[in-house]
Design brief:
heterodimer, A: mainly alpha, MetI-like fold, 3% strand, B: 280 residues, mainly alpha, 2 domains, 13 helices
Chain lengths: 295, 280
C-alpha cells in the first residue's frame, strides 16, 4: 500500500501550488470583500459595521446609475457589435471569398497584442485637434475648424470609447469563430450549394446554427468582459468629463483608492459580481430555451 | 438558375474585398500614423498633423526614454511577465496532471473551482487584495505583483492543461509507474515532454495577458521603480502631457515589443484563442 500513499502525496504535491495561490488571491478575497462591504473605513482604519448602508447609498447614487448605464452600453456593443462583426469577418475568410485570407487574418488580429493603455492614448491623439481623424474630416469636409466635440455631450460621450472597443476586440471573436467554422465538414457546405443556396443562406442557415454553442460562450465572455473594462476608459477619459464616461470599475476605483472607503468599494465590487452572474445566468436560460425550441 | 447564382457570388466577393480592406485600413492607419508621427517634433505635428516627417528625428525617443523612466519600466515588465508566465505554465500543468490522471473524485470539485475563476474579474478582488498586501508587507513589492499575475493566469491555463493532458493515454502513465517511477517523476519526465504543445499555447496567451496588464500594477505598487510599461506610459504620456512627439514615441515603445512578439507567435496566438473557445 506504499504505492497508494505515494500517489495521494504526489496528487497534493502537484495540485497544491496552483490551488493555494488561486484560493488565496481570488477565492478568499471575494469572501473578504463580502464581509468588508458591511463596514465603514476612515483614514485606512476600520471604524465599524454599518449593515446594508453602503449598498443603499450606492443603489441611490446617480453617479452609480450613470456608470451602470455606461457599462450596459459597453455590454451591448460587445454582444451586438463585436460578435456579429466577428461572425461576418470570419465567414468572409472562411469561405475564401478573397485572396490572401491569411494576410487579412493576421493584420486584423494585430490590435489584440497592443496594451489597452497604448490603444487608449493613441485614439485620444486620433480624436485630438491635431489628430488623424479630426484632420481627415477637415480635409474631406473643407471645414478647417472642425473638432471632435462628442466627448462633451452627456448622451454621446461613450461613443468614441465604444468605437475603440470595436477596433480592439472584434478580431478576437473573428479568430474564435473562424477556428470553429473550419470544423464544419466541407461536404455540408457543398450540399447547401448544390441545393442552390447563396452565400447569405449558407451563412444564416448552415454556418450560424452550427456555431450556436460558441456564440453562447462568447456572449458569456463578452458580458463578463464588459464589466472588466478599466484600463481603456481610465487611460482615455478617466471617466470624465464630469462622470459622463464613468464605468462601474472607475466608480469603484474612485471610492476605494481616492476616498479610501474600502467598505464602500467592496460593496460596489459585490454588486458588480452579482450583476455579472445574474446576466450570465439569464443568458444561459435564454440559450436553453432556444436550444429546446430547435431540438 | 446558374447565372443568377454567379452574379450573387460575384457581389459577395466584391463586398468581401471592400469590407476586409476597410477593416485592414482602419486597423493599420492609426498604427502607421503613430509610428511616423513619433519622428516629428512638436511644431511639425501642430502644423502638419497628417504629413510625413520632413526632418525625421529620434529626439522624442531619447527624451521619452529618459524622462519617462522607460528603461526601469521595461525591466519590470520583463520580470513581472517572465516570472508570472513561467509559474502559471508550470503550476497549471502540474494541476492539470493531478486533476486528470489520478482518478480521485475530489478532482471534479477542484476543476469546477478553477473554471469559476474564468468569470471573476480583477475588480472583484482588488480592494481586499490591496488591504491584504498592505497588512502582510507585500504592497509595493515585485512579489506582490507576480503572485496575483500567477493567480489570474491559472483558470484559463488549468482548463487548457486539463483538456490536453486528458487526451494523453493513461497507459503511458501506468507503464511508467509499474516500472517503478513515482508520480512526480512521471510528471517531470513524461507529462512535461508530451504536453509541450499546450505549454507553448498557455505560455503565449499568459505572456500576452501579463505584458498588457495594468490595474494590478497600478493599484498594488506606488513607487516609480516598480512600474511596468503600461503604467509608466500612462503616467508619462497620459492626458496631462502636452508634448505630442514624446507621447507618440512612448506609445511606439509600448507597441514595438508586442509587434515583434506577434510576428514570432501569431500562429500560436491564433490557434490558442481559437482553441480556448473550442474547449469549453
Amino acid at each position: 500500500m506504499v504505492e497508494t500513499r505515494d500517489k495521494r502525496v504526489s496528487y497534493y504535491l502537484l495540485l497544491l501550488p496552483a490551488l493555494v495561490i488561486y484560493l488565496s488571491v481570488i477565492i478568499f478575497p471575494i469572501g473578504l470583500s463580502g464581509v468588508l462591504s458591511f463596514t465603514r473605513w476612515r483614514n485606512f482604519v476600520l471604524t465599524g459595521f454599518v449593515g446594508f448602508d453602503n449598498y443603499l447609498v450606492i443603489l441611490r447614487d446617480p453617479e452609480f446609475h450613470r456608470a451602470l448605464w455606461n457599462n450596459v452600453q459597453i455590454m451591448l456593443t460587445s454582444v451586438f457589435g463585436q460578435i456579429p462583426l466577428g461572425v461576418l469577418l470570419a465567414y468572409l475568410l472562411f469561405r475564401k471569398l478573397v485572396r490572401g485570407t491569411r494576410f487579412f487574418e493576421m493584420v486584423i488580429f494585430l490590435p489584440i497584442t497592443i496594451s489597452a493603455v497604448v490603444v487608449a492614448l493613441l485614439w485620444n491623439r486620433i480624436f485630438s485637434p491635431v489628430g488623424l481623424y479630426t484632420n481627415m474630416v477637415r480635409v474631406l469636409t473643407g471645414n478647417p475648424d472642425y473638432v471632435v466635440r462628442i466627448f462633451e455631450n452627456q448622451d454621446w460621450a461613450m461613443v468614441p470609447i465604444l468605437v475603440v472597443l470595436l477596433w480592439m476586440h472584434t478580431s478576437l471573436y473573428m479568430v474564435m469563430f473562424l477556428a470553429n467554422m473550419q470544423r464544419i465538414p466541407s461536404s455540408t457546405i457543398e450540399a447547401a450549394k448544390l441545393d442552390g443556396a447563396g452565400e447569405f443562406t449558407i451563412l444564416t442557415r448552415v454556418v450560424v446554427p452550427s456555431l450556436a454553442n460558441v456564440l453562447f460562450i462568447s456572449s458569456i465572455f463578452a458580458i463578463s468582459g464588459s464589466f472588466k473594462s478599466f484600463d481603456l476608459v481610465f487611460a482615455m477619459t478617466g471617466g470624465g468629463p464630469v462622470n459622463y464616461t464613468s464605468v462601474m470599475s472607475i466608480y469603484l476605483y474612485r471610492h476605494t483608492f481616492t476616498f479610501n472607503n474600502f467598505g464602500y468599494g467592496s460593496a460596489v465590487s459585490v454588486i458588480m459580481v452579482v450583476i455579472s452572474v445574474g446576466l450570465i445566468t439569464l443568458t444561459r436560460w435564454i440559450y436553453g430555451r432556444v436550444q429546446k425550441k430547435y431540438d | 438558375m446558374k447565372p443568377m447564382n454567379q452574379n450573387m457570388s460575384r457581389g459577395w466577393r466584391l463586398f468581401a474585398y471592400v469590407f476586409l480592406f476597410a477593416f485592414t485600413a482602419i486597423t493599420l492607419f492609426p498604427l502607421i500614423w503613430m509610428l511616423y508621427s513619433s519622428f516629428k517634433l512638436q511644431g511639425e505635428i501642430m502644423l502638419y498633423p497628417l504629413g510625413w516627417p520632413r526632418n525625421p528625428t529620434v529626439k522624442n525617443y531619447h527624451d521619452a526614454w529618459r524622462m519617462g523612466n522607460m528603461g526601469v519600466a521595461a525591466i519590470n515588465s520583463v520580470i513581472y511577465t517572465g516570472f508570472g508566465t513561467f509559474f502559471t505554465v508550470f503550476f497549471s500543468l502540474a494541476a492539470g496532471f493531478s486533476l486528470t490522471k489520478f482518478g480521485y473524485s475530489s478532482s471534479r470539485v477542484y476543476f469546477g473551482v478553477f473554471t469559476l475563476g474564468l468569470l471573476i474579474t480583477v475588480n472583484a478582488v482588488i480592494t481586499p487584495l490591496f488591504i491584504m498586501q498592505t497588512r502582510i508587507g507585500l504592497y509595493d513589492t515585485r512579489i506582490g505583483v507576480i503572485i496575483p499575475y500567477i493567480a489570474f493566469g491559472l483558470p484559463m491555463a488549468v482548463l487548457l492543461a486539463c483538456s490536453y493532458i486528458r487526451g494523453i493515454p493513461d497507459s503511458l502513465v501506468e507503464a511508467a509507474v509499474i516500472d517503478g517511477a513515482t508520480y512526480v517523476q512521471v510528471f517531470f519526465r513524461i507529462i512535461v515532454v508530451v504536453a509541450s504543445p499546450v505549454m507553448a499555447t498557455i505560455a503565449v496567451l499568459t505572456f500576452l495577458r501579463n505584458w498588457n496588464e495594468f490595474i494590478l500594477v497600478f493599484i498594488l505598487t506606488s513607487g516609480e521603480s516598480m512600474r511596468s510599461l503600461p503604467v509608466a506610459i500612462n503616467s508619462f504620456a497620459g492626458r496631462l502631457n502636452v508634448n505630442y512627439g514624446m507621447q507618440f514615441a512612448a506609445l511606439v515603445i509600448g507597441t514595438i515589443p508586442m509587434i515583434v512578439f506577434y510576428i514570432g507567435a501569431h500562429n500560436l496566438l491564433i490557434s490558442g484563442f481559437g482553441e480556448g473557445a473550442l474547449k469549453e
